[in-house]
């Protein structure tokens, strides 16, 4: 059984894609809800736009804007680890950097 954290983003995306377009009144309600929870943002920051999500260019040389969300960051980091093969010394330095940011895990948790 998948954990909520593992499926939340995909589930949200599926619901948004299956849901009819959100009207102006619903947009305002969503913005008000998010602001009430401390998120100072308007509808343009919230709305889902699938034109830029995981699409490859259709013509050679055509640029596609990438949505740099948490999933993108995770995929980039995993690819870097896979191809760059950090050494023990690298892992020590990485953990030291993360400790300075307040994280408390050890090298063993990363390797």
UniProtKB/TrEMBL annotation:
Q: What domain of life does the native source organism fall in?
A: Eukaryota
- The name on file for this protein is Uncharacterized protein
Which species is this UniProt entry from?
Parathielavia appendiculata
